[in-house]
Design a protein that fits this description.
Layout lengths: L2 H31 L3 H28 L3 H33 L5 H13 L1 H8 L1 H9 L6 H49 L7 H9 L14 E6 L4 E6 L5 E5 L5 E5 L26 E5 L5 H9 L4 E6 L2 H10 L8 E5 L2 H7 L6 E3 L1
Parallel strand pairs: 5-6, 5-8, 6-7
Antiparallel strand pairs: 1-2, 2-3, 3-4
Helix pairs in contact: 1-2, 1-3, 1-4, 1-5, 1-6, 1-7, 2-4, 2-5, 2-6, 3-4, 3-5, 3-6, 3-7, 6-7, 7-8
Length: about 350
Amino acid sequence: MTRPRRLYTLVFLAGIGTLATEICASRLLAPYFGSSTIVWANIIGLVLASLSLGYWLGGRIADRRPEPRVLGTIVLVAALLVAVAPFLARPFLELSVEGLDEVSEGAAIGSFFGTLLLFAPPITLMGMAAPFAIRLALADVEHAGSVAGRLYSLSTVGSLLGTFLSALVTIPLIGTQRTLLIAAALLALGGALLLRRRWLVVSLAVAALLAIPPGAIKATDGLIFETESRYQYVQVVERASGARYLHLNEGIAVHSVWRPTEVLTGGVWDTFLVLPSLLPRLPQRVAVLGNAGGTVARAFGRFYPGAEIDGVEIDPTVSDVGRRYFGMGDNPRLRAVDADARPFLRSTDDRYDLIFI
């Protein structure tokens, strides 16, 4: 490859790595601090701050040492920091959660420092790539605008790919850890293009880390299942009594309960069973918006066996977990619908005696 093409490739791969790292940061933080607006604000704000610092540093260093090997080394170090992030995240975030449990703003503080320490350093280094590459690619001032525009365009296209591929394809298929390792391997490849050929072994070494099993995402007593869906982190916990609980993201709320010998839970799900007494007749059609693991539908199937129930759940993975661990497959009165509840209600011709939200 010619030197300009190597620079273009590096900037493109740095764009992929930057946004893939940002998306993965949100997924690594979600099981510990959730995915609220304040958590996302911390992630986006610190990523933008890191990129701004990187742009400034990259321009200054490029003017002082306009050498391809310097840029290659910077990107290679960024790749190594991204590669170690998923392995450092769990012990660091668990320690943060323990230390901030009693603080009312624990999620805001924890997500801020988690992003700052785990992801700000590599993103700062990745931010240095574009201005540094512009300095190296400029042959004369006359074409400075077109060179800068071309490089920033490639960086943005890479960022778009990093966003959509990680969020829609790689995280649901292979998880956050391996998505970060793929991003790190691509970054290492980009850095190695500006160094001697032997540095390609770093990219291969990072790619070899994909063979390491991800292990438990979040260690919890009684954990029997966990996964990352397109929407969230999903966890099933079983207690000594045999009862199972569905947790999503940080696990503060319980979204479904299953008991082996009874359908009553002793919780808020039971209150839905009182509402049919307010109707002039027994309900024939019921919709549950946010069906989760089907706890309400299961109890309705027992106490009101004449009711047909549409359980609407936006996350198909949660519905699969409901069938596997929460008895949804044993409820002949339930029709599980994988859909967003709002467009489902707007498009359906069905009418319901009761709609639970």
